[in-house]
Amino acid sequence: MYDFANSAYTTVVITAVFGAYFVGAVAGNAAWATFAWTAALSISYAVILLTGPLIGAWADAHAAKKKLLLLTTVGCVAFTALLAFVGPGAVLLALVLVAVSNYFFGAGENVIAAFLPELADSQAMGRVSGWGWSFGYLGGLAALGICLAYIMASQGQPASHYVPVTMLITAVFFAVAATPTFMFLKERAVPQPAVHSPWARLAETMREAHRYRDLWRLLLCIIFYQAGITAVIALAAIYAEQAMKFTTQETITLILVVNITAAIGAFAFGYLQDSIGHVRALALTLVGWIVMVLIAGFSHSSFSFWIAANLAGLCMGSSQAAGRAVVGYLAPPARLAEFFGLWGLAVKAASIFGPLTYGAVTWIFAGNHRLGIFATGLYFVIGLALLLGIDVERGRRAALASA
After folding, report:
1. Weakly modelled stretches of the chain, pLDDT under 70
2. Is residue 173 part of a domain?
């Protein structure tokens, strides 16, 4: 249920509504607007990158994942609601609130991922992770559908009228949908007293890195392919409106359909991953991403862009579910939160330079969004090349040997 709840934030705020609103209305389509948007997100991801492993290590040491999850949820909900006060010209306020709310979202994403191995055995992680991502996209679909209904009822009004209300809708949706998680999810971990400080625990992980070489290669792979994914998530609506000239309603309708595709992809690929193997399933999704970039970059019609967008949705759900499950499979059982903190570090490192690459290219090349998507597409190619050298069974044996 938590994936269902928190996806409202990333779908409405980051992907579908607020990003395009910031570029078009708050910043007035300034040449630097897309770069400023990506820079704010990159700063928040950088802070998550620095704090994620330490927070994870502290959670392991104190068996406090659920407490941390509550804190990050309250933070994200509160700062999302504050986005309702952003109007045209309030550039600094918008960037600060987005950066802070996105920090709480990303930190919570790390914490909830660490519960996965407690909820599923090694043979079912792909399916359970897929279920989580699938329900997540359905949650994003529900929240975005409510927002679209409000926007359609506000036809004739400027974006500054209806976008702030959608921020309040998103905050309330997140809070209400997350409540069952805190009512029913149990903290199954026990405190790990061997290491007295998160810093010492993280240092120990770094010293023993050679024992988990497949996990570390996977994390490097994730850095690159997630760079492309986060660029798509953060800039989908901006690309649709700036390059394809979609209206706000057309963009939201597109993303609604893409969320359905993503839910199907996450659900189906969870089973496929358990059936054909982690690496093969993930490789298949990365090939799909490369094809998507080519179609979107050369697209000049709404029909071909719809095809590219739905292919992105299919690959998005499946690749993210697959990556999270493989980390759970390769992580030492007694140090799950810590290694999921490192997974979060890899994802957030990617989130720093993925969208920022796109933003920098559009700024340098006079708003050329097609060149921006081609540049970020290179990250999928690099990720695929790194993936081919991973032996998940060897990595699993190393993880179990450390228990």
Report:
1. 1, 113-134, 187-202, 205-206, 208-210, 266, 270, 317, 321, 337, 341, 403
2. yes
Nearest Cα residue to 75 out of 174, 198, 183: 174
198 in a structural domain: no
> Domain count of the chain?
1
pLDDT at 114: 66
Cβ-proximal residues to 82 (8 Å cutoff; 6+ apart), any chain: 97, 101
Q: Residue 156: how many CA atoms within 13 Å on its side-chain side?
A: 1
Angle between helices 369-387 and 278-298 (to 10 degrees): 160
Range of the domain at 324: 2-185+208-401
Considering the entire predicted model, what is its pTM? 0.80
User: Which residue in 24, 367, 359 sits closest to 163, CA to CA?
Assistant: 24
What is the CB neighbour count within 10 angstroms for residue 123?
A: 9
Question: Is position 6 within any domain?
Answer: yes
In 288-312, which positions are buried (b, 16+ CB within 10 angstroms) versus exposed (e)? bbbbbbeebbebeeeeebebbbbbb
